[in-house]
Amino acid sequence: MTTSRLITDSSEWTFSILERYNEVIGQIAANEFKLDTYPNQIEIITAEQMMDAYSSVGMPLGYKHWSYGKQFVLTEKNYRRGQMGLAYEIVINADPCIAYLMEENTAMMQALVIAHAAYGHNSFFKGNYLFRTWTSADAIIDYLLFARNYVAECEEHYGEENVELFLDSCHALMNYGVDRYKHPAPLSLGEEKQRQQEREAYLQLQLNDLWRTVPARPSERVLSEARFPTEPQENLLYFIEKNAPLLEPWQREIVRIVRKIGQYFYPQRQTQVMNEGWATFFHYTLLNALYDQGYVNDGFMIEFLQSHTSVIQQLPFDHPYYSGINPYALGFAMMSDIKRICQQPTAEDRYWFPDMAGQDWLRVLDFAMRNFKDESFIAQYLSPKVMRDFKLFAVLDDETQDELEVTAIHDEAGYRRLRLALSDQYNLGSREPNIQVWNVAHRKDRSLTLRHTPYNRRPLHDNFQEVLRHLHQLWGFAVRLETVDEYGKVELVGECPQTRER
Amino acid sequence: MATLIDRRLDGKNKSAVNRQRFIRRFKSQIKKAVTEAMNGRSITDIDNGEKINIPARDLSEPVFGHGAGGRRETIHPGNKDFIKGDRMARPQGGSGGGTGKGQASNSGEGEDDFVFELSREEFLELFFEDLELPNLVRTQLAKVAEFKSVRAGFSSVGNPSNLDVVRSMRGALARRIAMAAPYSRRLHEAEAELQQVLAATPVDEPRAQALVEEIEHLRARVRAVPFIDTFDLRYVNRTKQPQPSTQAVMFCIMDVSGSMDRARKDLAKRFFTLLYLFLKRNYQKIEVVFIRHHTVAKEVDEQEFFYSRETGGTVVSSALTLMADIAAARYPLSVWNIYAAQASDGDNWHHDSPACKDILLKHIMPFVRYFSYIEITPDRHQSLWEAYEEVREVHPNFAMQQIDGAADIYPVFRELFKRRVS
Predict the structure, then answer these.
(1) Which residues belong to any copy of the SpoVR-like C-terminal domain (chain A) (predicted)?
(2) ipTM
(3) What pTM was estimated for this model as a whole?
(4) Any B CB within 8 A of A58 CB
(5) Topology adopted by domain B247-417
C-alpha cells in the first residue's frame, strides 16, 4: 500500500516527478503545518545561470554595474576551481515567489530545495513582520525592471562612465539608505480635525493665567542657531536625495533606486538566522512527513539526512575552518528546540518559558516567525539547552585590557549573559556604525556634517575616508564626519575635501 | 498553484556585460598584471588565457564599518575547558584561535589578492592594446583599389546580359492578369449569358447576336494585352563594394647556418610567433612563408623551419632574393599586405652584405608594409648590421633590433611595433 504512494525511486528527476513532489509537499505544508505562502514559481536553471543569479545578489534582473561583474568573476573562479559548490537554491522574495533549482541536482535535492525554498523561505517572506513592512513582494520584479531600464537610459544620455561612478557613490552608502522605522501615515482631514479639537480641549483644561506672568527667556532660542535638519537623520541616502543641492533629476532618481533596493534587502540582513532556521526546520519537517506517509523511500532519506547534516554542521571555535556561528545550525536548533519545549518541556523549560511549555508548537513557532528578527528572536527564544548543545561561551575583547576574558559559559550563571551577547551580535545597530546627518551649514559653506556615535567605543574602519569621498561626490560640497564619544565630546575625524588648517 | 518553468534554454551569459565592465573599470591594474605575466612566461604559449592578480584593496567597495578596537563580546561555539573568568593573551592576527573577531567581516577587510582568469581573447586584447601595426591606418582602407561586385536586388534598368528572365516573366504575368481583368470578367459573364439565351426556347436571336459580338470584341481586347512589355523587364542589380584587403602574408626568414644554435633558433621562433599572433588579430587571413637559408635559401614548412638541422656558411642575399621572387609571383600587392621578419645572428659572408642592401632597397622595401630584423647576438655587429642601417635611414618601415635573451623579446617587440603617430 505504501509502495503505491512512492513518487520515485530514481535519483534522476523529470518534470513530472518535480510536479508531483511540489504538489505533495505543498499539500502537506498547507494542511498539516498551516504554512501560508505566496504562489510558487519554480524555475529550472543551469549552473552557469546559477552563477549569473549569484553574482547579481540573487536578483533576477539588475542594472548593469561593474561590481556585479566582480562578483561574477569571483564566483566563476571559485566554482571552476571546485572550491565552492554553488548554492543549490536561490529564492526571491516576490509574489509569486521565484525559486531556482539547478539542473545538476538529484531528485532528492530538488525535493529538498522545493521544501526549503518554495515553502520554507516563501512562508517566511510572507509572514515575517520585517518583510511585510519593508518589502512589497508583488512589485519588486517590476521595480527592478524599471530600475534597470532607467539606469540604461541614463547611461545612454549621460555616459556610462558618469552613471557608473555615480552608482559607486550610492553603493557606498547603500546600507545607510534604509528607513528603520515606518513613518506614520499622513493624517486624514477628519483625524487632523479631531486632533485639533482634542488639543484645544486639553489646552483649555490647562489654562491658567498665572503662567502668563512668568517672564520668557528669548535669548536661549536665539543663541542656539537653528539647525538643518532639525532632527538628526539616519537615512543618509534619503537625505541626499531630497536635499543635495547640486544633483540633477536623474541622479536623484538613481539615489532613490539604490535606496529602494537597499531597503528591499534590509529585512534579509536582519533575519538570517531566523530565515534560514525556519526554512531548514521546515524542509526537515516536511521531508520527514513525506517519508512517514510513504511518498519517499529509505534511500531518499539517507541521502537527504546526509545533506541536511552537512548544512547544519557547526564547527567548534578551534577548528581550522571555523568561521563564526552557522546561521543554519543555530536557526535550526532554535526552531527545533521551540517545538521540543512545547511538546516535551522539562522543569528548566517550564521555568524559562512558562508561556510556551505544553502549548501547540505550530502556533508558538508561527508567532515567533511572524514577530521577531534575529536579535529579538535570540533574546527571546535561545534556551539553556541550545546553549549547552552548542557549548557557547562569550569572550570579551576590550582594548583597555591586555587580555581577553571569558565572561560567560554555558552554565547557570552564564545563560542570560550569553543570550544577551549573542543577541547583540545580531543587532544591526552594533554591526554597523551609527552615523547620522547632523547639520548642514546652509548659511555658510553648505557643508554637510555627519556624526558618528560609537557603539562600545568601537572605532570606524579605516576606509571611512573613502566613503566620505563618495559622499562628497553626492553632496557636492564639503563633507565632515565627527565622532561623539561617551562623554559627549565631539571630535572631527575626517573631512572631504581635506582642508589645510586641521 | 505552482508553476514549473524550464529556464535552461534562456541565455546564460547574463553577467557578461558586468564582467566586461569590471575589466574595463580596472583596465590599468589588469594591464599591469598582463605585462608582468608576459615577462614571466614563454611567448610560445601566449595564445592562452592568463591568471590575473589584482591587489584587493584596489577594487574594494568602501562602506562604513567598524575597525578593530573598542569593546566587543563575541560568542563562540564548542567550548571545551574554559570557565568564566579565564584570561588569555590576545591572538595576533587572524590565527584562527577563535577568540579574535569572530564576526563575519562586513567589509573587504582581507588583503588577499583578487585573482581571476582572463580568457585568451581578453588577454591578447590587453596585450596588444597599444601596439598597432605601423602604417596600418584607416586611410589605407579607404583608398583601396579592390572592388567586389555584389548583388543588390533588382533594378528596372540595366544591360541585357543582366536580365533576370524569371523576375521579368513573373512581372509580365502579373501585369497581363491585371490589365485583362475587367475584360475577362465581362467575358465570362457574357459567355454564361449566351449559354442561357441559347438554352432557352425560343432563342432570343437579337440578344444572342449582340452577345456574340460583345464576346468577340472582348476577346480581342484581352488578346491585345501585350505578352511582355519593357515595363516588365527586371535586371539583376550589382553594386561595387570596396574590398579592403584583409589578408596578409608574413615572411619569416631565418638563418640556419652553423652559427645559429638551438637557443638562438628558439628566440627567433618566439619572435616570429609574436608577430604571427599580432597579424592574426588584424587580418582575417594570414599566410606564412618560411624561408630558411645558409648559403642557399629554401622555402620550407614550419616544422622544418624550426627543427631541421643544417649547417653551412651564410649568404643572406639568397633568402632575400627568394622572398622577392615569391612575393612577386604569389602575392600581388593589390590583395596582400606583406610583412617580413628576419632573424639572424648577424653572420654573413662579407661580400654579400652590399648585395643584401641592394635587394632590399630595390625589390623588397617598396612592396612590404613592414620589415623587421632582429639580430640575436651578444656580440659586436658585423657587416650585415651596417648594411641594414643604411636601409633603415631611407625607409621608416624598416626596423632592426639586437637581442640576446628571452627576456629581451617582449621589449623588442614593443619597440618594433609601437604605435606610430601618423
Answers:
(1) 433-486
(2) 0.84
(3) 0.69
(4) no
(5) Rossmann fold (3.40.50)
